[in-house]
Amino acid sequence: SHYITAAQLNLRAGKKAMEMSDYETAYSYFDSGISFLRKKHWQEHYALSLELYSLVAKCALTNGDHTSLKFLIAEVAAKAHFFEDKLDVLYFETCALAYSSRLAESIEKGLDILSKLGIEVQGTNVEARVQETKDLLSPHTDDEILNSKPMTDPTMIIAMKFLGKLETGMTQIMPKSVPYVTFKIIELSLTHGMSPVSPLGFAYYGSYLAKQGEINEGYHYVKLALSLLDRVGSRENAGGVIFVCTQVKSYVEPLQATLEYHHEGYAAAMASGDSSQAVINTLLNCIGSFFAGANLQRMEDLFADTVKLCEERKQLNYKFQAQQVQRSLSKLIGTGKEPKHSSEGRDVLASNSSVLRSYHYQTAYVSFIFRSYDDTIENIEKYFALQENTWGILFLAHAVHAFHSGLISFWVARKSKEQRWYQRGNQSKLALRRWAESSQWTFENKWYLLEAEESFCNNDVEAAKAYYEKAIASAKLHKFVHEEALAHELAAYFYLELGEREQT
Q1: 141, 147, 148, 150 alpha-carbon torsion, rounded to 10°
Q2: Phi first, then psi: what are they for 120, rounded to 5°?
Q3: Which of 102, 129, 167, 296 could form a disulfide with 97 if both were Cys (CB 3.0 to 4.6 A apart)?
Q4: What are the residues whose beta carbons fall under 8 Å from the beta carbon of 444, sequence distance 6 or more?
Q5: Residue 437: HSE in the Cβ half-sphere, 13 Å Cα cutoff
Q6: In angstroms, rounded to a whole number, what is the distance separating the alpha carbons of residues 454 and 459?
Q7: How far apart are CA 392 and CA 99, in angstroms?
Q8: Which pLDDT score is estimated for 344?
Q9: What is the pLDDT of residues 37-55, one digit of tens each?
Q10: Terminal alpha carbon distance of the chain
Q11: Rounded distance between C-alpha atoms, residue 353 and residue 12, angstroms
Q12: What is the 3-state secondary structure (H, E, C) of 373-417?
């Protein structure tokens, strides 16, 4: 009938709009197509109905229209003939749960669906699982991996999408489970062929290795993941792959240069309709620029834009993380404009230890900059208490947190004379020294400043003088103007105390 013809034409038009990354127009075409379907369309035109509903659900997710998405998921769940036919919308449901800060529910639903597909990813021995992955990969050259056959089993392809979504959620609230998911993605890729999610598995594997201290090996695998993106015939996960890889690259390449990759990640994610990865790339670019010493007024504008993007796309988890840094910026600039904690923000802090740890870091960092001793200690203690179960892969923030928590620890060690603070500072110093070996540009000045502060603790005056000078010169050479200023300030405190000692 002409009704069905009209529905089919709207379906074609919607697909064209999706190819052009115009998901709002695509939504209107698919929605219009559904309006032409008659009463018994699920019985008489099942394939057409399923495709229209699945695609309009994808657009609703991308556009942040979770109200419509809920209705569409319920409709397909009730009318689809087979479990496999429901998988697309069930995947969108797990995404929506993750975006609205209900990560635990999203992960539970993803694991349940994978179990129904015969795929189990949990385990009890992380080291053994990582070794299994190394053993599995060892016989394969990079060229063999890049030229692997494509995955063709439709059920396996959608299962891989659920595994990819688990990586993102588990990284934040179940970090010790990340290697099990990563291993499963790599195992299925080598057994059944490469899917659009396969590069994500290799990116997470590289990032996990880098977090364990194997920076060069991790860097190798993130470069392989980026090469694999161009071989799998789809860039639907490019935003996620680029964000993970860029964070590892910042440990090898100059920081200021690596931040540009996040712009590419944002564009790739928006093109594929993955608003979550678009937001992550935007947020990490902003946080990286803040860490790199960008102008604070400019950063305030960028974070305001990021929060707005999070609100538009219903990315509550990332909105709250952006607001944490906004709060620090406001205090550093002295504007007094502080974002208020919404009920969703409080929910994120209560359920997400990774975000809670970052919150205490930001509070401790600002308190340290203003030399507010009691507030600094209160928050850095809470930060250290959350050390064990946060962030499953490597972020640039790991190094910056280690740097500032090390400076704080040496400051507290001098005032309190407690050995545990000295030990914490020493651990940070050793970590920065290792990272300086992989990227002298980004980490050398930070390592030198920690050496200076440790020498100050040890009353090694000549070593402290030399290291403060080295920290200042290295920060200047590598364009970290804010850390050059910080090194000058901490050196001034050192010389002030030295002068007071000499007077007495």
Answers
A1: 160
A2: -110, 140
A3: 102
A4: 436, 474, 478
A5: 9
A6: 9
A7: 18
A8: 74
A9: 999 999 999 999 999 999 9
A10: 99
A11: 45
A12: HHHHHHHHHHHHHCHHHCCCCCCHHHHHHHHHHHHHHHHHHHHHC
| Alpha-carbon torsion, ordered 127, 130, 136, 141, to 10 deg | -130
d(CA 244, CA 394): 8
d(CA 62, CA 26): 11
The tokens 């695509």 sit on which residue? 26
Residues near 316 by beta carbon (within 8 Å), at least 6 away in sequence: 99, 100, 101, 310, 344, 348
Please give the Cα distance from 92 to 304 (Å, whole number).
28
- State the Cα–Cα distance between residues 421 and 423, nearest whole angstrom: 5
- Other beta carbons within 10 Å of 108: 14
Stated length of the chain: 504
pLDDT, one tens digit per residue, over 325-345 is 999 999 999 987 766 666 777
> Residue holding tokens 């010790």?
176
For the purposes of burial, counting CB atoms within 10 Å of the CB of 343, is it exposed (0-12), middle (13-18) or buried (19 or more)?
A: exposed
Cβ neighbourhood burial of 6 (10 Å; 0-12, 13-18, 19+): middle
**Residues in the chain with pLDDT < 70?**
338-342, 504
Q: Is 147 exposed, middle or buried (0-12, 13-18, 19+ CB in 10 A)?
A: exposed
Of residues 461, 462, 465, the one with CA closest to residue 449: 465
Task: Could you list the beta-strand ranges (E) of 43-102.
Answer: none
SS3 assignment, position 194: strand
What does the pLDDT read at residue 339?
A: 64
CB of 238 within 8 A of CB of 280? no
- Per the CB < 8 A criterion, the answer to whether 76 and 89 are in contact is yes
Output the CA–CA distances (angstroms, integers) from residue 221 to 123, 227, 326, 393, in the order listed.
23, 10, 33, 13
* Cβ pair 399, 443 in contact under 8 A: yes
Distances (CA, A) of 194 to 114, 145, 150, 244, 402: 18, 9, 5, 19, 37
Placement of tokens 């502060």 in the chain? 453
The pLDDT of residue 341 is 63
Task: Say what the pTM is.
Answer: 0.94
Alpha-carbon distance of 115 to 455, in angstroms, equals: 55
CB neighbourhood size of 54 (10 A): 20
Name the residue among 59, 48, 47, 121 with its Cα closest to residue 89.
59
**Tokens 């996040």, located at residue:** 262
